[in-house]
Specification:
The structure is a homodimer.
Chain A lengths: L7 E4 L5 E4 L2 E2 L6 H7 L7 E5 L2 E6 L6 H4 L6 H8 L3 E4 L3 H8 L4 E3 L4 H11 L16 H14 L3 H25 L5 H14 L3 E2 L4 E3 L19 E6 L1 E2 L8 E6 L6 H19 L7 H18 L7 H6 L2 H5 L20 H4 L26 E4 L2 E3 L2 H4 L2 H4 L8 H4 L7 E3 L2 E4 L6 E2 L8 H10 L2
Parallel strand pairs in A: 1-7, 5-6
Antiparallel strand pairs in A: 1-4, 2-3, 4-5, 8-11, 9-10, 10-12, 13-16, 14-15, 16-17
Helix pairs in contact in A: 7-8, 7-17, 9-10
Amino acid sequence: MAAIHTPALLAAGQPRPRNYPANQYAFRAKSHFLYFLGEGLPGAALLFARGTMTLFVVPEQPGDALWTGPRPTLTELATRHGVDSVRSIEDLPAALADAGANVATLPTEDAPSAAWLSDLLGRTVAPSTGNRLEDGTPDAALADALIAMRLTHDQAAIAQLRLAGAASASAHLAAMRATSGAKTEMEVFGALVGHLRSRGFQDSFAPIVSTHGEILHNETYEHALNPGDLLLCDAGAEAPEGWAGDITRVWPVSGHFSDTQRALYEAVLDVQLTAIAACRKGVRYRQVHEVAKRRTVERLRDLGIFRGELDGLLERGAAAVFLPHGVGHLLGLDVHDMEDLGDRAGYAPGRTRSAAFGDCYLRLDRDLQPGMAVTIEPGFYQVPAILSDDAYTGKLGGDLRRDVLAKYADVRGIRIEDDVLVTEGDPEILTKDVPKAPSEVEAIVRGGH
Amino acid sequence: MAAIHTPALLAAGQPRPRNYPANQYAFRAKSHFLYFLGEGLPGAALLFARGTMTLFVVPEQPGDALWTGPRPTLTELATRHGVDSVRSIEDLPAALADAGANVATLPTEDAPSAAWLSDLLGRTVAPSTGNRLEDGTPDAALADALIAMRLTHDQAAIAQLRLAGAASASAHLAAMRATSGAKTEMEVFGALVGHLRSRGFQDSFAPIVSTHGEILHNETYEHALNPGDLLLCDAGAEAPEGWAGDITRVWPVSGHFSDTQRALYEAVLDVQLTAIAACRKGVRYRQVHEVAKRRTVERLRDLGIFRGELDGLLERGAAAVFLPHGVGHLLGLDVHDMEDLGDRAGYAPGRTRSAAFGDCYLRLDRDLQPGMAVTIEPGFYQVPAILSDDAYTGKLGGDLRRDVLAKYADVRGIRIEDDVLVTEGDPEILTKDVPKAPSEVEAIVRGGH
């Protein structure tokens, strides 16, 4: 309230229907709402006005006691959440009239909530405004205030991120251990998801469990597991209060990396460790991305896949041929934290995305500060659509040694990702409980259950 | 197309965003779309016009090959799905102009798709029209044609329902086996969900895994499992083509029913078997519901919980005190099949819901026909909000023997549910692979993994 000069309303959002209205996906409240409340209450809203925070909730409906069980009373909710008062959502219009003009808000992603907010506030609130927030408006001021709070995590938030990181690591271990008995990707996926649900965690995003790691957001689980395959698993836990973990590990289905797989795995791991070491107070994240790109090209040159001088190779787009995405992103209540605000959170004022292939997918370009959490996730991918297209490889000519690359045909995609908390000193790895050294990974996979 | 006299457009729908636009729930296409295509394609639509069925799909976008992998070509899709042709969704406006006037449609549950359809067709298409479809309109005619097709299942659909039923049964067995090693509901829930995902199945609805079975739609999993508890599990598999299973079982956490638990369990089981036996060609489903109510009151009278004459007890609302919901519902591509159309599918023309407590929750009142699939799911619940309210129990007075009921305090909720296919002869149980006889249930739970 000190940071903005208008009242503000933050909605939790409505459950999303699946195939018919009463069949709904598991409700997940908007992160800005969760940031203050820690509990997702469908249809609820928080009003910040006249120096007080009021929670408005959907009152008990006829039949609730039968169908969904008794609800906490308004007084119980006020005690639980430490808000100044709790009222029925039916009182919200009157409270808004009392709060004064120019009430700021941010839409939830469900269109019905956006329509409801539009109706309540007497102006159009579009869902997913993202980058389109206009500077100088109350909504933009509210977004900037939330960004300022959520960019660096306090001790309570860090405890949640550690919890989510540890659960994510534990789920990856379960997935590794399930591999030796599995015939398909979906069995490993099932082990991972079952492990998380058994412990009260949701997925912070749709897990990737794929022998086709070169398809970056592959969300099918249909492939058979063959002994020579690498399995890429990119998945994270979402803690009950909403905080996210995000880990990628890659392991050999057989429990043994081939020499070529090991060589590329070790190259990516070296890139990752180098990039993590760069995550220090005051360092611009774009620079961490550049460190990862340079190290990637350097290691691939060491393997003979590139030849020539590093700066020249980088200028000719060598990094994006095999690492076509950003080195990481913000992490918090969203796995891409505050991506609902477009690049407003990820990019410092005055900074914008590069137009260059690869760099254009970088989601974060701020100066790192203690308390910020980011992912570091370099990779190596052989994407047919890239390798066969002169638009991406043409400038490299023969300096991309396709004869050498051909020896690495048993690697489709490798990515190694951890969650990193920036501190005053060395970065803290929030997801260290799942090993990544090749011999340790092999031992876990071979150990099975 | 023979059943309606206008062109028709069926949309698959758009993925539902979770906490930000790119973080989406697993996409599930609208069932009417899946009925024809068997595969959910986000943003796609089927146009029936001039005697042909055309599939319109979102064309490959820049970056797809990198992020989501190569897509099938339009020709490959046409071959796979047996449609007359496949075109880009960008061609749909022109195709609609060519199709003629009065194009019928049914909205998907996501508001953006409803807005898109409104824009395409030049009229307001509201999401979740349900009961509000106006008779005599093209949309109502389309709904009625779909209901006529989907009410009774052909052999291909029956094969899918058997698949979903078997997977649901298998998941219940996994949940029973996981109980002996579990300390909380969520561990059993995790075992159930992991089992389904490992085999390529989704949940047909949010699973209920609860020691508080008296809360009918309890979707939390936080309670500890205590040796004296009954655990109620109501969950179902959704097959890859979208077809649903739906099973409820109840088992003792310890692997041993107490005498009182066993007595009530056997009463509910007897009611269920009686109701299943009533599911024969030509029987009105409302009558099956009445059979279950009468048998419930009779069995509870046998136990001494009620006293007096059956008809009188039923007239005074005795059944709904302990069985406050309908005995079952339609089953198909939706677990409550075609509930997107409100009661238009579940209730035969001219029939409407009862206003009476309990009966008002009955979702189905049609005459059963071979090929119809329904659930049969009677129960017994001690719901404090019902038992403490004279509005529900007042007319029963002392004929509700609270002194006898008090002996059954270790039963909060029991429900036993199977999926039943109506045939020309005896009903076929689609979910028979998971036992329900108390001794068999006990043996599975005690056997553990």
